[in-house]
Design goal:
Elements (H helix, E strand, L loop, with lengths): L4 H6 L5 E2 L9 H9 L4 E4 L6 H14 L4 E7 L8 H10 L4 E6 L6 H6 L3 E6 L2 H10 L3 E5 L14 H11 L4 E4 L5 H9 L5 E2 L2 H4 L8 H9 L5 E4 L7 E4 L2 H11 L4 H4 L5 H10 L22 H29 L1
Length: 328
Amino acid sequence: MLRTRFTETFGVEHPIVQGGMMWVGRAELAAAVSQAGGLGIITGLTQPTPQALREEIARTRDLTDKPFGVNLTILPSITPPPYAEYRQAIIDSGVRIVEIAGANPATHLPYLKDAGIKVLHKCTSVKHALKAQQVGVDGVSIDGFECAGHPGENDTPGLVLIPAAARELEIPMIASGGIADARGLVAAMALGADGVNMGTRFLCTAESPIAHAVKEKIVANTELDTKLIFRTLRNTARVADNAVARQVVEIERGGGGFDDVRELVAGARGRKVYEDGDLDAGIWSVGQCQGLIHDIPTCADLVARIVREAEELIAGKLAGSIVEAVAR
């Protein structure tokens, strides 16, 4: 029932993806998601060097024989990482799926395609999705405004963005942002998606390599407990509502620029949140769907539950509603 263009193209059992998350997409989590039948993804730049990424890929292979991918996020930087070397590490390691986020994937596509790698590109607008399709990616992951991290500057929620993209695209598309359970999966598919990408939901699982205090905070939070930072900088990011995020918002409201918040938003501080469980050490990404999360399951239990409940929804409640509507 849940076989889709995405599962067929990317060779996975279920149309459920654990997207790349900085400091979180490590071997244990990616392998657990893939072993459960979804698509687990290692975050390439979480590893400090290309060689470390090779070793992380090898560790993942020791934990699962199912397909998994590697995320490569390309962002403007004063001192950019050696992207070509990370890309070569992915190719040399025999990875078959790559998720690219950030800049246009065209620079990397020839190398990845020549190596027989399927490319999934993450984007936040129909325009960028169509551009990714034009340059030759195999699928796109489109982020609605509800998502953690960078939702773009158009503020378009998934309920509108997903069908708008589905109407235009010819390649498989998965939906991201605001999805944490079977209802989100079924809704996304009804809107035209071929699967879903979940970050926050997989952040709050037993295998997620972050402090338990962060997971407990996600369970306790509601959909209202996020902040949008960098709005004035046209680089919007959705993060958890904490003391640091509120301070950043206030500085922006007062006319401050990036230099005024640079130390507050440093990646090392966010990493400290995940590693030490100090919830106010820095900013950390989380989506509005945290309001739908009420437990900390294993990835196997979570994926099995979502698939089971999605099939029950499709064959049961929704089918019954259609029959009832026709009878009327």
